[in-house]
Design goal:
About 25% of the residues lie in helices and about 35% in strands. It contains 6 helices and 12 strands. Strands 1-9-10-6-8-7-12-11 form an 8-stranded mixed beta sheet. A hairpin with a 6-residue loop joins β7 and β8. The longest helix is centred in the first third of the chain and has 17 residues. α1 packs antiparallel against α3. The chain has 2 domains: about 160 residues, Nucleoside Triphosphate Pyrophosphohydrolase (Alpha-Beta Complex), CATH 3.90.79.10; about 100 residues, Alpha-Beta Plaits, CATH 3.30.70.100. The two termini are about 25 Å apart. It is of the alpha+beta class.
Length: about 270
């Protein structure tokens, strides 16, 4: 079991998200719906759960009529900040799938009205399942370098992100790299699994981390000093190639135990 202090630059705005710790903002939507079109509203709801997740949010689900009123439904989803939520709204205006979902509701008229409000949630901490990929090449790996906002310590972490429900870890890696770098990859293989207990801004976190290696289809990427990427909300970042000497100079490789794992496998100089 590894224990370390990590920076959280959440998936929406940077490398780390603390699953189960309180997001800064949750959107609560109350719908008045046509009770004779609940199957259509359910199909619409399933679309938006996937869209919010794809665009960097955490969807907590839709709640459809059961007992009592037959025309009232609710949904809840969270973003790390109101600014991140507004960025999601801006992205949704031009996203083809979001536009199609809105058109579906407009044409079929199963939503009669809605009210939106914002809440600060208090949630039980939970373990997060995470997939990271090192892309080792000639003794170096690809990492994002970032600072812990509480301690100011500089940390290095391979690219990747949370594993969604029903998603194999190797598929999560391919999805994350496609979203962050817009690059296809192949030869994805599991190197090992780490358990990480860490603290961000005074708040404990707990992750089960699947560590993968893979190959970029575009071999020229290995010759570049850094790769430009973007987070789910469009925030840019640069990933760079580093070896053990770089981590000694810049800051530790996280999660704890990853550097030892890669050295044991002769993947990190």
């Amino acid at each position: 079991m590894a224990s370390t202090t990590l920076s959280n630059q959440a998936k929406v705005c940077a490398p780390y998200r603390l699953e189960g710790t309180s997001p800064l903002i949750t959107c609560h939507v109350k719908y008045l719906v046509d009770p004779y079109q609940l199957p259509a509203f359910e199909a619409y709801s399933r679309l938006w759960m996937g869209l919010v997740t794809r665009m960097g949010g955490k969807h907590h689900g839709y709640f459809l009529p059961a007992e009592g009123a037959n025309n009232v439904a609710y949904c809840l989803f969270s973003f790390p900040s109101l600014a991140a939520y507004e960025q999601y709204r801006k992205q949704a205006e031009t996203d083809p799938q979001c536009i199609a979902a809105v058109a579906m509701a407009t044409e079929q008229r199963f939503i009669l009205s809605y009210e939106r409000s914002f809440l600060k949630p208090l949630l039980e901490p939970r373990i997060r399942s995470l997939a990271l990929c090192v892309f080792h090449h000639q003794g170096k790996i690809l990492v994002n370098v970032f600072d812990d906002p509480a301690s100011g310590q500089t940390l290095c972490r391979p690219l990747g992100g949370g594993i969604e429900f029903g998603e194999p870890g190797r598929d999560a890696i391919a999805r994350e790299i496609r979203e962050e770098l817009d690059q296809p990859i192949s030869d994805v293989r599991l190197l090992g699994t780490l358990e990480s207990l860490f603290t961000y801004a005074g708040t404990p976190g707990h992750e089960i981390v699947q560590v993968y290696d893979a190959r970029f289809d575009d071999a020229s990427l290995y010759q570049q000093a850094w790769l430009n990427g973007h987070e789910s909300n469009g925030s840019p970042f640069r990933a760079r190639w580093c070896d053990s000497a770089d981590f000694d100079r810049i800051g530790p490789l996280v999660p704890e135990g990853l550097q030892a794992l890669l050295r044991d496998l002769s993947l990190l100089a």
